[in-house]
Specification:
One of its GO terms (molecular function) is oxidoreductase activity. 49% of the residues lie in helices and 12% in strands. It is an alpha+beta fold. It folds into two domains: 97 residues, 3-Layer(aba) Sandwich (Glutaredoxin), CATH 3.40.30.10; 122 residues, Glutaredoxin (3-Layer(aba) Sandwich). Helix 1 packs across helix 8 and helix 5 crosses helix 6.
Length: 222
Amino acid sequence: MKPLLVEMTFDFICPWCLIGKRNLERVLEKLAASRPDVEVTVRWHGVQLLPDLPADGVPFKDFYLARLGSEAAVQARQEQVREAAYHADVDLDLARIRTMPNTANAHRLLALATGQGSARQVDALLEMLFAAYFQRGEDLGDGEVLLRLARQCGFDPRRLESALFTDGRAFVGTGAAQVSQAVPSFVIDGRLSLAGAQPPWLMLAQFERALQLRPIAEALAS
């Protein structure tokens, strides 16, 4: 049986993407227990939610005040995120975030690293990037930060420097990122899709449905 392909579209500045990733991991654990015969391949597709941000980013608090209109609205939105993160067992410290970064270099770095490291290394780098932003409030628009995180995951930073630009040029994604600008979103086995940080039970149902559809798709293709 060929591996079940799962493609996730994400941006580093979206807390729902980290929540969605954690929910996906729970689903993969359940699937491995119930269907040990099914191998799963996960591909990450980055997309910039805010490609027009300046290269140095903008103040985090000012960005959300302008976007949501009031301090009360910002607090309400952040409380909603914290509640969802708690149920997904995701650590967030939004109070430490000072900058809403331009994520183009972070996406380019991860894309270049994907061709140089193992799937485990790439996932570790993705986790490090999320943690740097949402737990420690580090600036993902800072090239030195990005290269340090890559080094900690076993990558040679000298081989990743070509991904970094100082002019804020937009990141051009590939694959599923070209199809959907919604984050997080998931495409399962090239047939079924999910948008948003859906609960694990719903995601698992779609995974099982994708497996059920395989014989039908194979019969139609023959």
